[in-house]
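queue> pop job 88
queue> type: inverse folding (structure -> sequence)
queue> payload:
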């Protein structure tokens, strides 16, 4: 079977132009990546953060590092938690 990461959480900006995926690798480690898409460009999402090589022991650890690495993410997660 091919090496396939499984996304366990995906958080988008309110306008939907950026997202962060938290994923688990087949070996059980976690990581994250930031993506961008342009509405007028039908090609889909493009990695822009280049964080995917970072290795974290848990989903919580990956999320915590993502929140300090991606400027808009912490506010988006905290905003959803209050809702």
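queue> result:
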């Amino acid at each position: 079977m091919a090496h396939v990461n499984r996304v366990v959480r995906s958080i988008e900006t309110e306008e939907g132009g950026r997202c962060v995926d938290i994923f688990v690798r087949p070996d059980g480690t976690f990581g994250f990546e930031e993506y961008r898409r342009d509405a007028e460009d039908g090609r889909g999402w493009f990695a822009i953060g280049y964080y995917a090589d970072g290795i974290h022991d848990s989903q919580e650890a990956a999320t915590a590092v993502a929140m300090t690495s991606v400027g808009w993410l912490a506010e988006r997660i905290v905003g959803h938690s209050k809702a």
